[in-house]
Amino acid sequence: MALETTTIQEKLTQKFGDKVLDFGMSKDIFSFEVHPYALHEVIRMLKEDKDLNFHFLTDLCGIHYPDNDDNHQFAVVYHLHNWVENTRIRVKTYLTTTPEVTSIIDLFLCANWMERETWDFYGINFMGHPQLKRILNMDEMISHPMRKEFPMEDSGRTDKDDRFFGRT
C-alpha cells in the first residue's frame, strides 16, 4: 500500500503538534514547515519511523529572503526520499537574521558537504557540524556570495572594460 500524505501529516502532528505546519502539495511534492528547534527530531522521525521510512536525503539547500521579516530571513530546505514507496517530501525551516540550525550529519552522512556548501554560500551555521568550513569559495572570503546583499560585481576590478559588457 502506498504511503499517503495524510499518514505523514497525521504522524507528524500527533508527535510534534504545532511545531510542524503548512502542510500541502507544492509542485507535486508534499511539503511542510518545521520550527528550527524541532527540525532534527522531525527528520529523525521521518527516517526511523518504520511506516515513513525516508532513508535518503536527496538535497539540502539554503535560501535568503531579504524582504521577509527578521524571523524569516533565511530558510533551509531538505528533500527526503522513501525509496520503498517512491515518495518524496520537502521539509522547510525558516531562520532569523542570525541563521543557525542543528546539523543532521548524525542522521545522514551525506549532509556533511551539503551543510558546508550552504554555510559557505549563505552563512547558515549548522550547530554540531564537525568541520564547518569553506568548501567551494576561498578560505579568505569574509562574505557569503548567495546572500542578496552580496554585490553582483566587484567594483574594484581593473581587468574589465565596461565597453565589452554593453555598457558605456
Automatic annotation (TrEMBL):
Q: Which family does it belong to?
A: Belongs to the complex I 30 kDa subunit family.
As recorded in UniProt, its EC number(s) are 7.1.1.-
> In the UniProt record, does the keyword NAD occur?
yes
* Protein's recorded name: NADH-quinone oxidoreductase subunit C
Which reaction(s) does its UniProt entry say it catalyses? a quinone + NADH + 5 H(+)(in) = a quinol + NAD(+) + 4 H(+)(out)
Quaternary structure (record): NDH-1 is composed of 14 different subunits. Subunits NuoB, C, D, E, F, and G constitute the peripheral sector of the complex.
**Organism listed in the record:** Flavobacterium paronense
Q: What does this protein do?
A: NDH-1 shuttles electrons from NADH, via FMN and iron-sulfur (Fe-S) centers, to quinones in the respiratory chain. The immediate electron acceptor for the enzyme in this species is believed to be a menaquinone. Couples the redox reaction to proton translocation (for every two electrons transferred, four hydrogen ions are translocated across the cytoplasmic membrane), and thus conserves the redox energy in a proton gradient.
Main localization of the protein described in the UniProt heading = membrane
Lipid bilayer topology = Peripheral membrane protein
This protein's superkingdom? Answer: Bacteria
Q: Which PROSITE patterns match?
A: COMPLEX1_30K
Q: Which residues form the NADH:ubiquinone oxidoreductase 30kDa subunit domain?
A: 33-154
SUPFAM superfamilies in UniProt:
Nqo5-like (SSF143243)
Keywords of this entry: Cell membrane, Membrane, NAD, Quinone, Translocase, Transport
Q: Which gene encodes it?
A: nuoC
Pfam families reported for this sequence: Complex1_30kDa (PF00329)
* EC primary class: translocase
